[in-house]
Specification:
This protein has one domain. The N terminus is likely disordered. It is built from ten helices and nine strands. The longest helix is centred in the N-terminal third of the chain and has 19 residues. The protein has an eight-stranded antiparallel barrel with strand order 1-3-2-9-5-8-7-4. It is an alpha+beta fold. Its main location: other.
Length: 450
């Protein structure tokens, strides 16, 4: 992994001082002392708002096992070109821009306030005075990039479609809005400052002009999972701790088993999906919570439905937050203390063939509906090695049997293949160590097009 941290800020140079000279896209772009391989603050690993950076290059893309930041802006894109070369050029531009932005630099080497006076600036400029805030940018590919719903193979990628990149089924009680579902490409930007995350998507969208357009987006705040043992368990909008048993970066064996796509799985695939070895699958689900109804529900019922205490987060079978639930313990009338329809019981690995997920979800609040009710809830994000085994069976069970479903409504959905990262040192750089975008530049997911 390349997401280690140190205590030093990069060369003591401010972000503002680094915003200078160049053109977006094919022109030279760069970063002074472009390491792209190390994080630069210890606090960033704990999700704190610091002027630190995380590696862009490495065996895996950042933004997966990276300690979860506090803010999210995720965007799904539809590719509007049918030209394979245009798609490749877009991914090359995105890779170079993402490499710059995650290191605290402007999207283009001229920056927001220099360069040709009669041309648009290379960077939109709204973060010129802000630190990089631990920004990570993660790219993924939707099923429709390989083959459209009507069977069209736009880019000659149909034979590279992984078997596991399925169309998610319509789960019981789903109420999906098609405008909030799917997409050819997905970009996840996470940071400890919302403006930094939004700036990243804004500039990548700008660079996609003529090749792709945004299909849907989701802003998130208040992470609902911890991906590092250094982080405290956060709370969701129901007021309960969320993600107590989540996979952690410090558990590489389980992460390898449940998150990364192994070479053996790619070899067993009926299609040529070796390009995804070391990658993962991202499940995205927008889950609206009926906040007003929940807020009128007794504490006893809330805890029974979740299966944990609201204060400590301990399982109702006893212990503290990190005590394993004992599903055999019974109480009055010989009823299990952790109810049969509780979320904790139904989502636990022992009831799902031992499978686990690495969750990186966020709370969201998107205003209110026509009746004045909050349009708010959980934007569920999870990275898994195979959605057919590690998500779909569990969600089918939860949708049918989970008592919490009375208070939840799934309104958006997407599944994306997330390719592995770029090897350290693979980016083409100039004499000053800055990356350069050329027609031969490497990019995230390049093996797919080989």
């Amino acid at each position: 992994m390349t997401e280690e941290t140190s205590a030093a800020e990069p060369r003591g140079i401010s972000r503002r001082a680094l915003l200078g000279g160049g053109l977006l896209g094919a022109a030279a772009v760069g970063a002074a002392g472009f390491g792209l391989g190390r994080a630069t603050t210890g606090e960033a690993s704990a999700g704190a708002a610091t002027p630190g950076t995380f590696a862009f290059t490495g065996e895996h893309q950042a933004g997966i096992v990276t300690p979860a930041q506090d803010r999210l802006y995720l965007a799904a894109f539809d590719v509007t070109t049918n030209d394979r070369d245009d798609l490749v050029a877009l991914l090359q531009r995105w890779t170079t821009i993402a490499a710059r932005l995650t290191q605290g630099l402007a999207a283009g080497s001229y920056g927001p306030s220099s360069g040709p006076y009669d041309a648009p600036p290379d960077d939109t400029g709204e973060v010129a005075d802000l630190p990089p805030a631990g920004l990570t940018i993660t790219f993924g590919f939707g099923r429709s990039l390989f083959v459209t719903p009507d069977g069209t193979d736009r880019f000659g990628l149909a034979d590279r479609l992984p078997d596991a990149l399925v169309e998610l089924p319509h789960f019981p009680a789903d109420n999906l809005d098609p405008a909030r579902c799917d997409g050819d490409l997905v970009v996840q930007a996470c940071a400890d400052d919302p403006q930094v995350a939004v700036h990243a998507i804004r500039n990548l969208s700008r660079a996609a002009f003529g090749a792709a357009t945004i299909r849907w987006t989701q802003l998130g705040y208040g992470r609902t999972s911890s991906t590092s043992t250094a982080q405290r368990t956060p709370r969701n909008l129901f007021g309960f701790k969320d993600g107590t048993a989540n996979l952690k970066a410090e558990d590489p064996a389980h992460v390898a088993e449940h998150v990364w796509v192994p070479a053996a799985a790619a070899a067993a695939d009926s299609r040529d999906s070796a390009w995804l070895t070391g990658g993962s699958y991202l499940v995205a689900r927008r889950i609206r919570m009926t906040i007003e109804t929940w807020d009128r529900t007794s504490l006893r019922e809330q805890e029974a439905l979740v299966g944990r205490t609201k204060g400590e987060g301990a399982p109702l079978s006893g212990g503290t937050e990190f005590t394993e639930p004992d599903f055999a313990v019974t109480g009055r009338d010989d009823q299990p203390l952790v109810a049969m329809n509780s979320h904790v019981r139904l989502a636990h690995p022992t009831h799902n063939g031992g499978v686990r997920m690495l969750r990186r979800g966020y709370n969201f609040t998107d205003g209110n509906d026509a009746l004045g009710r909050l349009d708010a809830g959980l934007f569920f994000l999870a990275f898994v090695t195979d959605p057919r085994t590690h998500y779909i069976p569990m969600q089918n069970t939860l949708s049918r049997d989970d008592g919490l479903m009375e208070y939840l409504q799934h309104t958006g959905s997407g599944l994306f293949a997330v390719p592995p990262g770029l090897p350290d040192g693979s980016l083409v750089v100039g004499e000053d160590g800055t990356p350069i975008t050329t027609s031969a530049s490497p990019f995230v997911g390049q093996a797919l097009f080989a």
